[in-house]
Amino acid sequence: MSAAAFAQPAPSVPEVKHRGLITVAIMLATIMQVLDTTIANVALPSMTGDLGASQDTITWVLTSYIVASAIVTPMTGWLADRLGKRELFLISIVGFVATSLACGLAWSLPSMVAFRLMQGVFGAAIVPLSQTFLLDINPREKAGQAMAIWGAGIMVGPIIGPTLGGWLTESYNWRWVFLVNLPVGALALAGCLIYLPRAPRKQRSFDLTGFAMIAIAIGALQLLLDRGGEVDWFASGEIWTYAVLSATGFWMFVVHILNTDKPFLEPAMFRDRNFATGLVFIFVVGIILLASLALLPPMLSRILGYPVITTGMVMAPRGVGTMISMLIVGRLVRKVDPRMLVIAGLLLTALSLYEMTGFTPQMDSIPIIRSGVVQGLGLGLVFVPLSTVAFATIEPRFRADATSLFSLVRNIGSSIGISIVTLMLTRNIQINHTELSAAISPYNPLLWQTSPAAVLGDPAALSRMDQMVNMQASMIGYVDDFWLMMCVTLAAIPLALVLKRPATP
C-alpha cells in the first residue's frame, strides 16, 4: 500500500497521571452497565410471582431498559459537551446505582418497569464515554491496548451475565441481580471522583428536531424487535406501526441533518471511511456475539438438560478465549496490519460456527467448550483492531458522538441478530417437526424395528417418540441458525479490505 493511503498520525496526548487507576474505575462502571443487559434475563421467572406479572408482561422489564438506553445513547456527545465528560460520567454512575437499588426494592411490575427505564436512561452514556476516556488518556501508540481492555469488558460482560444472574437468583434472591451493582458502582464512583481528569465544556446548540426523529426511529425499531416474537411479527398491526414509525423517523433524520446548519449528528463523521466501515463491522459483530449467546443457553437447557450453573460453566471458556485474544492482539495491532487481524478473527469465528453446525443431542460438553474458545478468540481478534482502526482517523471533536454511535449500532445489531435467529428457530422447529413426523408411520419398517409399541398405539411409546421428534426438530433448528451466522460472518470478510490502515505512530 502506498504511503498516500496512510492516515496522518494524530498528535500524542499529554501525559495523564494515574492512568491505570482511571482505567480500573472506568472499566468497573462499564462492566456494571454491560452486565445489566443480560444478567436480569434468567431472573424473569422468579420476578413473575413476586411482582404479580404474567409471562407476557414480565418481558417489559427487559424491553423498557433496552428502549430507554437506545434512545438516550445518541445524546451522549451533546450531553458531554454541555455538562462535561467527567460530570456526565459521574452523573451516569450515580443514577445507574440509585436506579439499580430502586429495581432491587421494586414492589410491582409498573414500579419495576419505571425503574428499569430510568436505569437505561442513566446507563446509556457509560459505555460510549468509557471508550472516549480510554482513547483520550492513552497516547496513539497505546490505543490498541486500551481498546483491548475496553473490549474485554464489553464482550465478556454479556457472557458471564446469565451465569452470575442465575447463581444470584438460585443462591439468594432475584433482587440481588440489581443490588450487586451497589458495591461495584460505589468503587467506580470513588475512583472516578478522585482520579478522572476534568474536560472543558463546549457550547453546543441542541437540535431538537434531529433528536426527536432519531429517538422515534430507534425507539420504534427496538420495540419492533422486542415485541415481534410475542405478537407474531407482521401479522400484528402493532408491529406494522413500529415499522412505519422507524422507517419514517430514519428517513426524516437523514434528510434533516443534511439540510440544517447545526445538526444533531455531524454528517462529516460518516465521510471518514474507517469509521463508516467500522459501524458496519460492529453491526455484524453485534449480531454474532449476542445471537449465539441467546441461542446456546436454551439449547443446553432444553436439549442437553444442563442446569443454569452448568450452562454458565460450559460457556465460561468462551469469555476466557476472548480475554486471551484481546490481551494478545492489543500488542499485535501496532505491528501487524489490523485488517489482517480482522480477517483472521472472522475466519476463526466462522470456523467455530461451522463446528456448531455439527452439534447433536448426544454430544458431551467438549464440542461446546472447544467451539466457544475458538469463537472467543475470533471475536477478540475482530473487536480490538476494529475499535482501534475505526477511531484512528476520525477528528477528535467527533469522538464522543462517534463512540455513542459505535455502541448504538452494536446494540442494534445485537437486537436484530437475536430477533432473526429466534424467529428462524421457531419457524424451522415447526417445519422440521412436520417433516420428521411424516416419517412416523405404521408403514415405515424402521419404526417397527425401533419402537413396535408405538406402531401398536401404546401411549407411553408415542409420548417418547414425540419427545424424540421434538428434540431432533429443535436441534436441526439450532443448526440452521448456526449456518446462517456462519454465512453472515464470511460475507463480512470483504469489508476488511475497505478499511484504511492507519499510519504507525
From TrEMBL:
Segments crossing the lipid bilayer: 21-45, 57-76, 88-107, 113-135, 147-168, 174-196, 208-225, 239-258, 279-300, 306-329, 341-360, 372-393, 405-425, 482-499
Entry membrane topology: Multi-pass membrane protein
GO terms for MF: transmembrane transporter activity
Cellular-component GO terms for this entry: plasma membrane
Domain (Major facilitator superfamily (MFS) profile) ranges: 22-504
Annotated keywords: Cell membrane, Membrane, Plasmid, Transmembrane, Transmembrane helix, Transport
Domain of life assignment: Bacteria
CDD domains per the UniProt record, alphabetical: MFS_LmrB_MDR_like
InterPro entries the record matches: EmrB-like, MFS, MFS_dom, MFS_trans_sf
Record protein name field: EmrB/QacA family drug resistance transporter
Species this chain originates from: Paragemmobacter aquarius
Taxonomic lineage: Bacteria, Pseudomonadati, Pseudomonadota, Alphaproteobacteria, Rhodobacterales
